[in-house]
Write a structure and sequence with these properties.
139 residues, alpha+beta, two-stranded parallel ribbon, two-stranded antiparallel ribbon, PXL2A/B/C, Alkyl-hydroperoxide reductase/thiol specific antioxidant family protein, Thioredoxin-like_sf
């Protein structure tokens, strides 16, 4: 997303990220993986996630998917190579809701929902190309 932010902004859309974490944890994330050219907001109670229909995947299912993906080579970069990033990811897996599934939502400047994609599983995010195609189709 951050590598292609200009393409989205050129179409007069803005990216805002909501994470199921407290602000302090988001700050730690930014220290290890930032900077990002868009704001990241916290939803520690997961009220927005739940209210918008996002689900928490059973832990066993997510770990099985991750393990299968790692063994087959379909999942790369699940655990970062850089030591401090790796430690942060391991901490996150123990202390954060890494099992809740994300999504992509597009709203008009008037707050009208234009399109949504709720991820059914971690590997099924909406692609940037898909998001840009939806934006283009809205003209």
């Amino acid at each position: 997303m951050r590598e292609r932010i200009a393409e989205i902004e050129d179409k007069r859309f803005h990216v805002k990220i909501v994470a199921p974490s407290k602000g302090a944890f988001i700050e730690q994330f930014l220290e290890h993986f930032g900077p990002f050219p868009f704001p990241i907001y916290g939803d520690p109670s997961r009220a927005a996630y739940k209210g918008m229909g996002h689900q928490t995947m059973p832990k066993w299912k997510l770990l099985a998917k991750a393990g299968f993906g790692f063994v087959t080579g379909q999942v790369k970069g699940f655990i970062p190579d850089e030591e401090k990033q790796k430690q942060f990811v391991m901490k996150s897996m123990k202390t954060q809701d890494v099992y809740i599934q994300g999504g992509t939502w597009l709203y008009s400047s008037q707050g009208e929902l234009l399109w949504k994609h709720i991820d059914p599983s971690p590997e099924k995010h909406a692609s940037i190309d898909e998001v840009l195609a939806v934006i283009d189709s809205r003209g």
